[in-house]
Design brief:
2 domains; 111 residues; mainly alpha; transmembrane; transport
């Protein structure tokens, strides 16, 4: 296990150095940049964390396929409910604001 971890550190170091070098060469040749950058990503993906990342991506893809999306009728109903609640809450807040403002104007003009 330690040997594998040691190799992973070397792979990450190699990949990081490749990315830094490729950024330097981007000024001169974009193909060298793409080659070094692609090589770095490939090396990163064969590490333990890279394999975990690939596994995470596959599981996310499976999860998205198993989602149940709402039907258009449900979307319309939900949208209408949200709009109505928004209008009602807005009216309540406007009414409270008007009453409080009126009360403050009356109180301030008395003094």
């Amino acid at each position: 296990m330690k040997k594998n971890k040691k190799y992973d550190y070397l792979k990450w170091l190699f990949s990081t150095m490749n990315i830094l070098i490729s950024m330097y060469y981007l000024k001169y040749n974009k193909y060298i940049f793409l080659l070094l950058y692609s090589l770095s990503i490939c090396v990163m993906l064969i590490t333990v964390k890279g394999k975990y990342l690939i596994s995470l991506g596959k599981n996310a893809k499976k999860e998205i396929k198993s989602l149940v999306w709402p039907k258009p009728k449900e979307i319309i109903k939900t949208t209408i409910v949200v709009l109505l609640v928004t209008i009602i809450i807005s009216f309540i807040i406007w009414t409270m604001d008007t009453l409080i403002s009126g009360f403050l104007i009356i109180m301030l003009h008395k003094n």
